[in-house]
Write a structure and sequence with these properties.
The protein has about 400 residues and is of the alpha/beta class. It has two domains: about 120 residues, Rossmann fold (3-Layer(aba) Sandwich); about 220 residues, 2-Layer Sandwich (Dihydrodipicolinate Reductase, domain 2). The chain is built from ten helices and 17 strands. The strands form three sheets. It has a nine-stranded mixed sheet. A six-stranded parallel sheet has the order 3-2-1-4-5-6, sandwiched between helices. The chain has a two-stranded antiparallel sheet with strand order 9-10. The protein starts with 6 loop residues before the first helix and ends in a 10-residue tail after the last strand.
Length: about 400
């Protein structure tokens, strides 16, 4: 039987349906109203890394891409055109004085990070910086202090602590599933980038380009390092690169880092630009462990690189046969850092990525080089909130 309604009831119901439809994009699962806040982004450095960042940022509901900047103006223009970014600039001064934005995403050569990050902080911009956030621990600490004085935030790559595999390993360690942790090893290397000289110049090197990932992962899983010993070397003294031709290699292209995490836990990282690796720089097809952690009751093996993991192999005293766990990668990708930070700024939530952790990793890399020069064990002063997960 059809329900009979009056004209007044019909109009009332129709208006309610219309309002509900209009509000649908702003209604949460619990029924509360909200409007997605967008964080305005100015991105600087339109080289190869931006080709991974810009697609990810452009798809985020929390991001409004305001401007791009590059010292090669054509690269900035092309990036703006490809991703519908309304403004492009050839210098950071123009960008900071131009269209207003909230967060600087710094994808420039690593030697420029500290200087450019400082300029943005002085203009009261939040900063997401590709690794490392500065070239020395002192410079990085000054940036963090400046951000606090200016009432803004700074964060540094990598985003390895965001992966489901990192979380799985961390929980197993914290829950005592592998007993008392004793040791860990991590490695990452290939034959070296060819597109730019900065990797091999002063302030570059395999530590801030490659080792930074493993150091962030191991300290995130095992706790802050208390002391470091290291050795570095140059295996290939001359390189030929796209932007400068033949160059002399100044920064290390081979490094070994030994960390003391306290409580008897020791870990080791090796990284370099002289490793034959069939998976190459992109890492496609890597299905072997790159990080291993041993304890008294079990061991954990991270499958794939820590910046692109897809599983954790586990063997324990209770189940000695190795089994693969944490095979769901979720939405994690290495280039998600700026997108995640934008979401956290928009929602007011705190990210797992922390400036103090990035600063700690920076001090470890600097200490490794100091250990090579002095032959001594170097004590580490910095720390961060642990456990991360």
């Amino acid at each position: 039987m059809k329900e009979k309604i009056s004209r007044h009831q019909f109009l009332d119901r129709t208006s309610k349906f219309m309002i509900a439809g209009m509000l649908a994009p702003f209604v949460s699962a619990g029924g509360a109203l909200y409007q997605t806040k967008k964080v305005r982004i100015g991105l600087i450095g339109c080289g190869s890394v931006s080709g991974m960042y810009l697609p990810h940022l452009s798809k985020s509901p929390y991001v409004e891409l305001v401007s791009v900047c590059d010292i090669i103006p054509e690269r900035a223009r092309v990036a703006a055109e490809n991703y519908q970014v309304p403004h492009h600039y050839a210098h950071i001064d123009q960008q900071l004085a131009g269209a207003p934005f909230d967060l600087l995403v710094n994808l420039t050569d690593m030697q420029e990070h500290g200087r450019l990050n400082k300029q943005a902080l002085l203009k009261r911009k939040h900063v997401w910086s590709e690794k490392p956030m500065a070239n020395t621990y002192a410079e990085g600490k000054a940036l963090l202090d400046l951000s606090r004085q200016q009432g803004v935030r700074i964060w540094g790559a990598p985003a390895v602590v965001n992966s489901p595999q990192f979380a799985h390993m961390s929980r197993m360690i914290q829950q005592g599933k592998i007993g008392k942790v004793a040791a860990a090893h991590a490695h990452y290397g290939h034959l070296g980038p060819t597109w730019s000289a900065f990797f091999y110049e002063q302030g570059g090197g395999s530590l801030p380009d490659l080792g930074v990932y493993n150091i962030a992962t191991l300290t995130g899983l095992l706790g802050p390092a208390k002391a470091v010993m290291g050795m570095t070397s140059i295996v290939t003294p001359e390189r030929t690169v796209d932007n400068k031709g033949k160059i002399k290699v100044v920064a290390e292209d081979n490094a070994m880092v030994l960390m003391d995490h306290g409580n008897g836990i020791l870990s080791h990282v090796q990284c370099g630009f002289n490793y034959f690796d069939p998976y190459g720089h992109e890492g496609s097809g890597q299905d072997k462990p790159t990080i291993s952690i041993w304890g008294t009751h079990g061991n954990l093996q991270l499958i794939g690189y820590d910046w692109a993991p897809f599983g954790v192999d586990v063997a324990t005293h209770d189940n000695e046969k190795t089994r693969r766990e944490a095979t769901d990668t979720g939405t994690y990708v290495w280039q998600e850092g700026a997108s995640v930070i934008s979401e956290k700024l928009a929602t007011g939530n705190e990210p797992l990525i922390a400036a103090l952790h990035a600063l700690h990793v920076l001090e470890i890399m600097e200490a490794t080089r100091a250990s090579q020069l002095t032959g001594k064990r170097i004590e580490i002063k910095s720390t961060f909130k642990y456990p991360v997960v």
